[in-house]
Amino acid sequence: MPKITARRANIILLALVLVVGTGNLWATHDEVGAQAAQQHAFQAAEKRQQEASARAGVLIVHKLCVSFGKLAAEKPPAGNPATNPSRAFDQGQHAVLVGLGSDLGCRS
Questions:
Q1: pLDDT at 1
Q2: Rounded distance between C-alpha atoms, residue 82 and residue 101, angstroms
Q3: Are 87 and 80 in contact (CB under 8 A)?
Q4: Mind spelling out the 3-state secondary structure of the chain?
Q5: 32 within some domain
Q6: Which end of the chain is more exposed for a tag (fewer CB within 10 A), N or C?
Protein backbone atom coordinates (compact mmCIF):
# COMPACT_ATOMS: atom_id res chain seq x y z
CA MET A 1 0.00 0.00 0.00
CA PRO A 2 1.46 3.34 -1.03
CA LYS A 3 2.29 5.79 1.69
CA ILE A 4 0.26 9.04 1.66
CA THR A 5 2.50 12.03 1.93
CA ALA A 6 1.50 15.42 3.27
CA ARG A 7 1.56 16.85 -0.24
CA ARG A 8 -0.69 14.11 -1.60
CA ALA A 9 -3.09 14.54 1.37
CA ASN A 10 -3.29 18.27 0.70
CA ILE A 11 -4.05 17.64 -2.98
CA ILE A 12 -6.77 15.13 -2.06
CA LEU A 13 -8.30 17.57 0.45
CA LEU A 14 -8.16 20.40 -2.11
CA ALA A 15 -9.87 18.23 -4.72
CA LEU A 16 -12.50 17.23 -2.17
CA VAL A 17 -13.12 20.89 -1.25
CA LEU A 18 -13.45 21.80 -4.94
CA VAL A 19 -15.92 18.97 -5.60
CA VAL A 20 -18.04 19.82 -2.55
CA GLY A 21 -17.88 23.55 -3.30
CA THR A 22 -18.89 23.00 -6.92
CA GLY A 23 -21.81 20.82 -5.77
CA ASN A 24 -22.85 23.49 -3.30
CA LEU A 25 -22.77 26.20 -5.96
CA TRP A 26 -24.78 24.02 -8.34
CA ALA A 27 -27.40 23.21 -5.66
CA THR A 28 -27.66 26.89 -4.67
CA HIS A 29 -28.08 27.94 -8.30
CA ASP A 30 -30.78 25.31 -8.78
CA GLU A 31 -32.63 26.39 -5.62
CA VAL A 32 -32.50 30.10 -6.54
CA GLY A 33 -33.81 29.27 -10.02
CA ALA A 34 -36.66 27.23 -8.56
CA GLN A 35 -37.60 30.04 -6.17
CA ALA A 36 -37.54 32.58 -9.01
CA ALA A 37 -39.78 30.35 -11.13
CA GLN A 38 -42.16 29.88 -8.22
CA GLN A 39 -42.29 33.63 -7.56
CA HIS A 40 -42.93 34.31 -11.25
CA ALA A 41 -45.78 31.78 -11.29
CA PHE A 42 -47.28 33.34 -8.16
CA GLN A 43 -47.11 36.85 -9.64
CA ALA A 44 -48.68 35.66 -12.90
CA ALA A 45 -51.54 33.99 -11.00
CA GLU A 46 -52.04 37.12 -8.90
CA LYS A 47 -52.15 39.28 -12.04
CA ARG A 48 -54.73 36.96 -13.63
CA GLN A 49 -56.84 37.16 -10.47
CA GLN A 50 -56.66 40.97 -10.42
CA GLU A 51 -57.65 41.13 -14.10
CA ALA A 52 -60.59 38.79 -13.46
CA SER A 53 -61.69 40.94 -10.52
CA ALA A 54 -61.45 44.08 -12.64
CA ARG A 55 -63.56 42.47 -15.40
CA ALA A 56 -66.13 41.38 -12.82
CA GLY A 57 -66.23 44.91 -11.39
CA VAL A 58 -66.82 46.41 -14.83
CA LEU A 59 -69.62 43.91 -15.45
CA ILE A 60 -71.29 44.71 -12.13
CA VAL A 61 -71.09 48.47 -12.75
CA HIS A 62 -72.59 47.94 -16.22
CA LYS A 63 -75.46 45.94 -14.75
CA LEU A 64 -76.05 48.59 -12.09
CA CYS A 65 -76.02 51.32 -14.75
CA VAL A 66 -78.61 49.41 -16.80
CA SER A 67 -80.81 48.97 -13.72
CA PHE A 68 -80.49 52.61 -12.65
CA GLY A 69 -81.19 53.67 -16.24
CA LYS A 70 -84.44 51.72 -16.18
CA LEU A 71 -85.36 53.25 -12.82
CA ALA A 72 -84.55 56.74 -14.09
CA ALA A 73 -86.74 56.15 -17.15
CA GLU A 74 -89.71 55.43 -14.87
CA LYS A 75 -91.13 58.86 -14.10
CA PRO A 76 -92.94 59.35 -10.80
CA PRO A 77 -96.62 60.22 -10.97
CA ALA A 78 -97.34 63.86 -11.60
CA GLY A 79 -98.87 65.89 -8.87
CA ASN A 80 -98.22 68.78 -6.58
CA PRO A 81 -95.93 67.58 -3.78
CA ALA A 82 -97.17 70.36 -1.52
CA THR A 83 -100.74 69.02 -1.54
CA ASN A 84 -99.92 65.30 -1.92
CA PRO A 85 -97.14 64.04 0.37
CA SER A 86 -96.95 60.67 -1.41
CA ARG A 87 -96.06 62.51 -4.64
CA ALA A 88 -93.29 64.31 -2.80
CA PHE A 89 -91.97 60.96 -1.58
CA ASP A 90 -92.12 59.40 -5.06
CA GLN A 91 -90.45 62.41 -6.69
CA GLY A 92 -87.75 62.57 -4.01
CA GLN A 93 -87.06 58.85 -4.33
CA HIS A 94 -86.80 59.16 -8.11
CA ALA A 95 -84.32 62.02 -7.76
CA VAL A 96 -82.15 59.91 -5.41
CA LEU A 97 -82.19 56.92 -7.79
CA VAL A 98 -81.22 59.12 -10.76
CA GLY A 99 -78.40 60.56 -8.63
CA LEU A 100 -77.09 57.10 -7.79
CA GLY A 101 -76.66 56.32 -11.48
CA SER A 102 -74.68 59.49 -12.09
CA ASP A 103 -72.60 58.85 -8.94
CA LEU A 104 -71.54 55.52 -10.47
CA GLY A 105 -70.52 57.32 -13.66
CA CYS A 106 -73.40 55.94 -15.71
CA ARG A 107 -74.26 57.74 -18.90
CA SER A 108 -77.86 58.82 -19.16
A1: 63
A2: 27
A3: yes
A4: CCCCCHHHHHHHHHHHHHHHHHHHHHHHHHHHHHHHHHHHHHHHHHHHHHHHHHHHHHHHHHHHHHHHHHHHHCCCCCCCCCCCHHHHHHHHHHHHHHHHHHHCCCCC
A5: yes
A6: N
| Structural domain includes residue 108 | no
**Within a domain: 63:** yes
Number of domains in the chain: 1
Burial, 94: exposed, middle or buried (Cβ in 10 Å; 0-12, 13-18, 19+)?
middle
pLDDT 10s digits, 49-102 = 999 999 999 999 999 999 988 888 888 888 888 888 888 888 888 888 888 888
In a domain, residue 1? The reply is: no
For 51, the domain range is: 6-103
